[in-house]
């Protein structure tokens, strides 16, 4: 059955520590809501700000595709398979935890916070070998169109690959007045990372707002101010 639900930025659960402000689109950590555990295949969409010279110490993950998209500042990744990378705006990163991995994520700046969105989906198969991929895509995003930045779907040519054949992550950067068509899909999740957008008949979407579609038909997003949006296109859902 077709449905659409707008989730406003102010309605998200928030975790606050001395070095972290994390806003959660779904249940996460101590914030559990049995009616808000995922949408489609998307389990986690955290909007995080990490203060200078701080971050996530080494911790484990298993059987998870973790995609990180930095909005401001730089985030340093290091993991137990020997990968090391600095993630910054315009560069997309995917870590496949697979059979098990340890990693840390740190803000090495002495003065600037780092602001990023981190998203988790389940892979099609468990026990895969852990892996890591990152790619700079600023040039592609300058077109103001929808760019597939991560996907496991057949016939896609994404910047980075996902180990899930039913999921794809798109991004668009739009100038004022620019518009983009959203995909038709059984499940869609839109997240406004910056600016203001207008979605067909539904009105304004501001920074931090999200939209969840079930049985989505094609529609259009138009920028009321310079904006960026992340769109998950999903052809399946957890548990079926």
TrEMBL record:
GO molecular function: metal ion binding
Pfam families: Pirin
Cofactors, names only: Fe cation
Sequence ranges assigned to domain Pirin N-terminal in this UniProt record: 11-121
Chain positions recorded as Fe cation binding sites: 59, 61, 103, 105
Keyword Glycoprotein: no
InterPro entries with a match to the protein in the record: Pirin, Pirin_N_dom, RmlC-like_jellyroll, RmlC_Cupin_sf
Cofactor descriptive note: Binds 1 Fe cation per subunit.
Family to which this protein belongs: Belongs to the pirin family.
Protein name according to UniProt: Pirin family protein
Species of the source: Mycobacterium simiae (Mycobacterium habana)
């Amino acid at each position: 059955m077709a449905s659409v639900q707008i989730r406003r930025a102010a309605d998200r659960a928030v975790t606050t520590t001395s070095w972290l402000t994390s806003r959660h689109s779904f249940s996460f950590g101590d914030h559990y809501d049995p009616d808000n555990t995922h949408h489609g295949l998307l389990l986690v969409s955290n909007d995080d700000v990490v203060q200078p010279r701080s971050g996530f110490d080494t911790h484990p993950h298993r059987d998870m595709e973790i995609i990180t998209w930095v909005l401001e500042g730089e985030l340093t990744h290091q993991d137990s398979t020997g990968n090391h990378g600095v993630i910054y705006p315009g560069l997309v990163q995917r870590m496949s935890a697979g059979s098990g991995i340890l990693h840390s994520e740190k803000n090495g700046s002495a003065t600037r916070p780092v602001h990023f969105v981190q998203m988790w989906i389940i892979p099609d198969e468990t026990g895969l070998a852990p892996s890591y991929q990152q790619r700079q895509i600023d040039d592609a995003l300058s077109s103001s169109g929808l760019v597939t930045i991560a996907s496991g779907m057949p016939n896609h040519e994404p910047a980075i690959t996902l180990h899930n054949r039913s999921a794809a992550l798109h991004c668009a950067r739009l100038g004022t007045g620019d518009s983009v068509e959203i995909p038709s899909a059984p499940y869609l999740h839109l997240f406004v990372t910056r600016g203001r957008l207008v979605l067909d008949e539904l009105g304004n979407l501001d920074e931090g707002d999200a939209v969840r579609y079930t049985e989505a038909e094609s529609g259009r997003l138009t920028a009321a101010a310079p904006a960026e949006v992340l769109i998950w296109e999903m052809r399946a859902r957890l548990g079926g």
